[in-house]
Each structure stands twice: as structure tokens, then as C-alpha cells.
Amino acid sequence: MSKSLFRKKSIAVILKDAHDGLTEGHGGGGSKLQKVLGVKDLTAMGIAAVIGAGIFSTIGEASFHGGPGVSLLFIITAVTCGFSALCYAEFASRVPVSGSAYTYSYVTFGELAAWVIGWALILEYAIGNIAVAISWSGYFNNLLAGIGLSLPSWLTSNYDSATAEIVASAPHIAGVPVILNLPAFIIVVLVTYLAYLGIQESKRSANFMVGLKILVILFVIAVGSFYVNTNNWHPFMPNGFSGVMKGVSAVFFAYIGFDAISTTAEECSNPQRDLPKGMIYSLIICTVLYILIALVLTGMVSYTQLKVNDPLAFVFQAVHQNWIGYIISVSAVVATTSVLLVFQIGQPRIWMSMSRDGLLPKRFSKIHPRFKTPSFATIITGIIVGVPALFLNLTVVTDLTSIGTLFAFILVCGGVLLLPPQEKADPNNKRFRLPYINGRWIVPVIIIAFAYLFREQLPQKFSFDGGWEVWKHNIPFFFFAVAAIVFSVLSFVRKLSLIPVLGLLSCFYLMTEIGFRNWVVFSIWLMMGLVIYFGYSYRNSKLNQVRRITLV
């Protein structure tokens, strides 16, 4: 059984399945996805997924802890994501099919790891979108208030945060108050319907929304620069580097999404060339915008004032430019809508790939004969996101989404190390190739330099003086330290490629900065996934069926 848990799907088989549209017996009548996406569309989708709720909300919390130095955190996170993006690009060029990190893990680590990462991606896409939908509702309500309109408070709240006044004003059914976040539910329904209609319609909508929100962000940066007081940039890191790193979860939440581009591989005109470009271009553009926004925010007001839910609107109110706050509210609504759209496109395509492999029921891989989209999977995604958004207030969702994404990045970076050597370059083949840089000496030197820079903090990380309540938060760092030593040795002995090793270790380090409680919840989530795998997916896996036929 241990061998069957790590059974792998070859690249040749995956490419054949994609070429045939759907594997035998998985419904859809041979319908295929439409190949309509180019570099511009993929870059726009990446920007649409990345520039969303993070730049309008979580950036304030990160700036409060890190001060102006939070701009460095954006650079650190961008470099980390850059390493991962290059690894994604390498996989996308070799395995140009839908499925993202799930498919890549199936090729390199085997079926069990593929299922685990597919299950973790549900955490990134679906649960992350619940938070985005709730955030969208808040921006939309602010927009209505700006024009003198408002919805009843019981239609814009939830049971977790409803006050006694809201409960009293709400209608009651059988003595139970009816409290709903109706705008959050409606936007999920509308976006899901758009994703259901087709990738062509989704592409046009995403391109329009991206163009609009970039114009607004550039406007905010340009106007805000006139109100920057450089004295607010001193001290640059008021709480030291540890203060800067406190915002890692919030900042990383602002970056997740570029990997969603890889789920559209089968809808790209030339995925081997265009997917890598779309990922890297979107990451560069978003990083520049994030750094400029961070510097403008912390320059307009003191970082101590930025622990607010709507930092962009707040800083312009502080300089008596309230009218700009209304423009920001419009942009926030557009930005979060585009994030919802890209993730509602991405999640069904991952489920479609899992269904093709037999790990999910066949209906998840059914392609609509007219709209050429994974119709059933899209509807289920809408239900899973829309219903919780109607009722819940998820306070730890940014951390949970970040930890799921970083976990996916680690497996993708590690998977690149397991790929067979590239064949001799063909001058007629323009696909992306990850450059090989020998990490034999560089990786150990970087680890030693890291240990030197953090020499004062390291004894605290390994100290038991504070008891279990203190030490348990250092458990992730302990495993990171072990991984750093192991990969230093492996890099020296086996001359491992530098970029994937740095991507893996940097993502692992960012995971150590996420709270212990979120590790516990994430572990429980993975355990639930394993129950489903051994209860259904293991037996119904297509590779397992092939194995049975072979044994017979």
C-alpha cells in the first residue's frame, strides 16, 4: 500500500489526457476548454488576483507593526513569491494543463501528496474567497453610504458580530433572528454566474476591472505623494525587523493569487510560453504598486495611526480629502470583485483535474457543451463560498489562507528539484526554462549568514524557559531549522539548483511567522482531507484502477 500511496502520473499521460479533452469515462462528451488566453490576459488575471482586499485593508495592520519598513517586507515577500513563481513557470512550461500545484505534485511526489495539496488549495481558494466576499460587502456598504443609501443592518451583518441592537431590529423566524450578509452572497452568485458563462466573458471582465483599479491606484499614489511628510519615515523600522515580520501573514495574503493563473493552462493559446510570462509580469507590477502604496501610506500619517480597516481612505481623511475616499471605495469594490472572479475560475479547474484522476466524483470534470467551462464544479464552488459568506465572520482566514498557499509553494519548489533534467534546448521551442544555478556553496553561505543576522533571536527560539505555552509557538521554526540544515547539506553534496531551494526555504520561513493556532487548524483541515482520501479517493483513483487491471 505504501507504494500505491506515492504512485505518480507521468507527464506524457497528463499531456495526453489534456489533449483528449477528458479522460475516458469522465463525462462531458469530449468537450474541451477554449484556448483564448494570451500573455496580456494572463498578466491581467494575475494582477486581478493579487491586487485585492490586501492593498485596501491588511496593509494597514502590517504598517502599524512594521512602520515604513513594511515596504521591505513587500520586497522580501515578492522575492519569496518570485522564487516560487519561477518554479511554477518551470512546471507550467513542462506540464501545461489545468490543476496548478495539485498536478505538479502528482508528477513529482505522487498521489497522496497531490491530494493533500489539492485539499490545501481549497483552503486558499474557497475559504480565502469567503473573506474577500465579506470584505467586498463592507466596501459596497460604504459606497452606498457615500450616496446616502443603506441596507438594513441585519442584512449586512452576521451572527458572530451582530450587536444587541441589530438582533433586536432583525425579523425573527420561530424566535431566531434572521441576520444575513446579503451583499456578500449576491456578489458570489453574480461572479460564479460569470465564471460559469465562459472564460471569454471572464477574461473581458477581468481585463476591464484590472485597468480601472490600476488607474485608481496610480491616481491615489500620485495625489498622496503631495501629502507625504518624510519625517513620518523616521524611524524606518520602529519595532525592529521582528516588527516588520509581524505583518508577514497580512502582506503575504496581499500576494496570493498569481498561482491561480496556472489553473487556466488548458485555456491558453501557448501555455508553455505565455503562462510563465503572465506570472512574472503580474508579480513585478504588483510589487512595485504595493511598495509605492506602503511608502505613501506611512508618509502621509504616522504608522501608529494605521491600525484601521480602511487605511487608504483613512489617510486621505486625515489630510481633509474625503472625496478621494469615495473613489477608493469604488476601486475597492472593483478590486475585490476581480479577486473573486479569478479564484472562482481557479478552484473549479483544480477540482476538474482531481476528478479526471478519479480522486473526486466524475461530475466535477464535466465540461459544459456550450459554455466550455467545468459547469458542475463551478456551481459547487459558488455554493461553498456563497453560503458561508452569508452567515460567517472569519477572523483567522488571512492566516489560514496564507499557510495553505505557502504549503503549496513549498511543494512546487520541492517538486522542481525532483523533475528529470531538461532535454537539450530546441531553438524552435520558446518555452520557459528555469535557469540552473549551482547552490553547492551559495545555500550554505546564505544559511550561515541568516543564522548570524538572527544570532540574538535564535537562543529564544530554542529556549524552554517559558514552558509549553511559549515554546509551542517556536515548533514551526524548529522544523525550519532542521530543513535549512538538511538542504544545506544536500545542496553541497548533490549540487541542487539554487532557485527552488531558496524558494522552498523562504516559504518555510514565512510559515514559521504564522501563529500556532493556525497551524493547529491547518493540521485539522489536512486530517479531514485524509479521511476523504482514504474513504473515497484512494479506491476510485484512476491509477488504482489501472493497477487492479494489471494485477488481474
TrEMBL record:
Limits of the Cationic amino acid transporter C-terminal domain: 498-541
Keywords: Membrane, Transmembrane, Transmembrane helix, Transport
A Pfam entry, by short name: AA_permease_2
Cellular component, GO annotation: membrane
Gene Ontology molecular-function annotations: amino acid transmembrane transporter activity
Key word Ribosomal protein present: no
Name this protein carries in UniProt: Amino acid permease
Residue stretches spanning the membrane: 42-60, 72-91, 112-136, 178-196, 208-228, 240-258, 279-303, 323-346, 376-394, 400-419, 439-455, 475-493, 498-516, 522-538
Localization annotation: Membrane
Family matches, as InterPro entries: AA/rel_permease1, CAT_C
Bilayer disposition of the protein: Multi-pass membrane protein
